Amino acid sequence: MFRGYQIFKRPYLTAFFLVFVSISAHSQRYLADIDSSFFIKDTVRPVIKRFENLRITGYIQPQFQKAQSDGAPSFSGGNFSQFSSSRFMLRRARVKIDYILPSKYRFPKALFSFQIDATERGVIVRDMFLKLFETKKNKLSMTAGLFARPFGYEVNLSSAFRETPERGRMSQILMPSERDIGVMFSYEPQEKSHKLSHIKFDAGFFNGQGLSGTTDFDDHKDLISRLFVKPYFIKKIELSGGISYLRGGWKNGTKYVYESGKATNGDNIFVVDSSASNLGRSSPRHYYGADAQVKLKHKWGETEWRAEYWFGTQPGTSNSTSNPGTLPNSNGNPVPTYVRHYNGAFFLFLQNIVNNKHQLMVKYDWYDPNIKVERTDVGKPGANLTAADIKFYTLGIGYSYYFNPQTKVIFYYDFVKNEKTQMTGFDTDLNDDIFTCRLQFRF
């Protein structure tokens, strides 16, 4: 026994033995199925047991894209280079590690999650959070760290499972990177027999800038909440839906705040408020959302309809309605704040053809960053309206073929339309349609 122990103290033999045990453990989950000798029982078991609740998942999305023109602006993976209308790119390549700490019953006590995205554009952390579960009644939990904002359906649907290549324009502008740093409390009964097991309610406080900034640039936090009804079955029909709410804002860097108003001739314009009290005051960032999903199961596979609508108030600058990562400035000097009222929606139709290996998809979405003005107002002298006030529509049509549940290829075309205004460059439709061919593998 002693000589055997001395042998296993040699590093290379120990490494070989642990690899062998790890391979065996992969096909046989529990130690009792491997061996019962003293060494394995008392030394290796804690090592394997420590990792038996560890799960590693990920996916990769290499793709080719062709734009309608060189340098086309795009919400399908970023703008094209000035002299290019085609590109190969690694859209996403992610690895996620989850570790679940189980309670003495079958429910979790804690979950740690870490995800990175590594592409030709660099490596970035996408998730890093700890979720603690209440284990007495198994209904409540708290999440802290970097994780997805609990707003809307499309924002929270993983890119590994989303049927269309990208989220809509409104999601990308108002919820850049989908994630933020904060703390969230959730009500979600874990026991399937509980009468409210199909209900999930999340509410939390977040910095507001998401991954677009390295630190919170003011002390205002966003309150975000979502009430979601999980899929509910009525014969062959599956129903789900939710409502979302966000209340936040960020501090004005100057005393100049522009809001929608009327000119003396009746034109819709931005009117400036230059009260000294505006400096350092929070401009409102208020979102309201509702979504619904209907899925019908049939012999071909599934037919699904999704609809989602957002509206609210968004602070920005003269040229952007996107949420900033730093206090908006020009050459280091703060710029005025522009407060707009917006709305937008997403509609998606999915249809299996012949069997579940073939799927057709049709998506329509719009984002109107300023519902207080008409397209004919944009470009008028003195209106203070810019390209940031123009409404965009996108019709996406695509087809997916699933080689297996983990691997698929997507062919997708975005027809992008903008309002025709009086502003130079936007008096006609931009040449910004995009074709995408993507291969995806997930594990």
Please outline the helices and strands.
Blueprint: H1 2-8, H2 11-27, H3 38-51, E1 54-67, E2 86-102, E3 108-119, E4 122-133, E5 140-148, H4 169-174, E6 179-187, E7 199-206, E8 222-234, E9 237-251, E10 257-262, E11 268-273, E12 282-298, E13 301-316, E14 329-330, E15 333-334, E16 337-353, E17 355-368, E18 392-404, E19 407-418, E20 434-442
Parallel strand pairs: 10-16
Antiparallel strand pairs: 1-2, 1-20, 2-3, 3-4, 4-5, 5-6, 6-7, 7-8, 8-9, 9-12, 10-11, 12-13, 13-16, 14-15, 16-17, 17-18, 18-19, 19-20
What does this structure look like?
- Mean pLDDT is 89; it is low at 1-42.
- Strands 1-2-3-4-5-6-7-8-9-12-13-16-17-18-19-20 form a 16-stranded antiparallel β-barrel. Strands 14-15 form a two-stranded antiparallel ribbon.
- A hairpin with a 1-residue loop joins strand 16 and strand 17.
- The protein has 4 helices and 20 strands.
- It has 2 domains: 1-52, no CATH class; 53-442, Porin, CATH 2.40.160.
- By secondary structure, it is mainly β.
Key words describing this protein structure:
disordered N terminus; mainly beta; Porin; 2 domains; 10% helix; 4 helices; 443 residues
- Terminal CA distance: 42 Å
| CATH topology-level fold name of the largest domain | Porin
CATH architecture name of the largest domain? Beta Barrel
Output the radius of gyration. 26 Å
Largest sheet: 16 strands, antiparallel, barrel
Supply the number of structural domains: 2
Helix content: under 10%
CATH class of the largest domain: Mainly Beta
Query: Segments where pLDDT lies below 50 for 5+ residues?
Result: 1-42
Q: Could you report the average pLDDT, rounded to the nearest whole number?
A: 89
Count of alpha/pi helices: 4
Strand order of the largest sheet: 1-2-3-4-5-6-7-8-9-12-13-16-17-18-19-20
Order of helices and strands: HHHEEEEEHEEEEEEEEEEEEEEE
Principal-axes geometry comes out as: globular
